[in-house]
Amino acid sequence: MAARTGEQFLRGLKGDREIWVGGERVRSVVDHPALRGAAHALAEVFDLQHRHADDCLMADPQTGEPINVSHMIPRSRDDLQRRHRGLERVAEFSAGLMGRTPDYMNVTYAGFAGRADEWAVNGNEEGSANLVRYQKKLAREDLSLTHTIVHSTVDAAKGKYPVGFDPVQLHKVENTSNGILVRGSRVLATLAPFADELAVYPGAIMPNAADVHALSFCIPMNTPGLKFICRDSVATNTNRFEHPFSSRFDEQDAFVIFDDVEVPRERLFIDANLEVYNTVMKTSWWPNIMQQTMIRAQTKLEFAWGLATRMAEAINSAAQPPTQQMLGEIAMYAEFTRASVYAAEQAAAEIGNGMWSCDGRPLAALRAALPVWFPRVNEIIRLIGSHNLLTTPARGALADETLRPLIDKYLQGVGVDAEQRSRLFRMAWDFTGTALGSRNEQYERFYLASAGRNLITNQAVALAGRGRADRLLDRFLLEEWDEGQEDGSRRLASAAS
Questions:
Q1: pLDDT band at residue 39, thresholds of 50, 70 and 90?
Q2: Which domains does the chain have, with CATH numbers?
Q3: pLDDT tens digit sequence for 259-269
């Protein structure tokens, strides 16, 4: 099978899996009112790859079949730029609001397979070979993959990972004739209702955990014993005029319970091997996946700037200095993001095993800034919108023959009629103020770790390339002074020079 269509994707969701929304077990993801909007939106993403095949598809290196470019293992800077175009197409579809479209995991597993040598350490050659085979399956069957990589929080005082053995956390119970039996829980499986398979891999090192917690594998969503408990749906209204984003872009998040789940041997990438678990994510994963995440962030910031600007123009406040400053602030964030992605791609290099990746330094700095930038962008949009965000007639009111002339007269904008004004401000509220807007702000605050953890990561990345900073500093710290010369005429013999 090659790249799937939207119809093929929806057909794949009809298999039995245990998905819970509220107190109800979902019998049909495609038809359930809380899920069908996003299911059909993701189907559009699968169709999009065929409409924009030049950007989104490539030939499988072995079979020649068309596969999504997000499955590419980059071998050059040109490959990264080729992948950029496909990733940008997907990000534009939801204006960056969907952070876990299938290309995210496609890029992740392409990176894992590209650095299979990192997985084949400490006796894990079989797990590494399994991973490479699985990545080909993922690409050729065009699967939608979700992941769960965060340990459940029961007692935060114990830390973010198991210390010793913790029965609540996902762990290996025993070997079976076909593989291993696992039990426990994990979070946060975003996209779970709309995935074909579930991935488990390291999210962070576990220096003091028991070996049984060190696991990585991929299994189908309908594997017996897998249970997904979703948060409340934010798809409260399927009317795209009134809820243009929440009606279709609620990608969902789920708590995952492994109630004695068997993982087949061929699907197992790490089997209770703590040394492998604690090393495979240290080098290549970060700069590889950051290309996808930052292209999405750039798209979302550019959309936010356009939305805020159009709102200001509609009420004729765009020329006012306070509004100009706020619009300029969003434009600054968007440009810094664009420049960082560009710099990272231009400075790309081979990182081992023939795989190329972006320069991680600008992307690490950007990742540390975004948890602050995105909430600020939402604040600016709400400040510019003010009370206008709450004066947005519904579609039904606009269709009423009695109300419509009055609405046209009293709720018109500058350069836009009342209907377009209502649509514009509803869009802004759905972006920032509805349940979807709040969920997405929370997502951006903690996506790929909190702001604090990302700042620590950025410091570690900076320390790895501190040579120039040290040289600049040492020029002054290591200066040699002539005895008795304390005025401006003294000779400076710099040890650093």
A1: very high
A2: 6-277 (2.40.110.10), 285-464 (1.20.140.10)
A3: 999 999 999 99
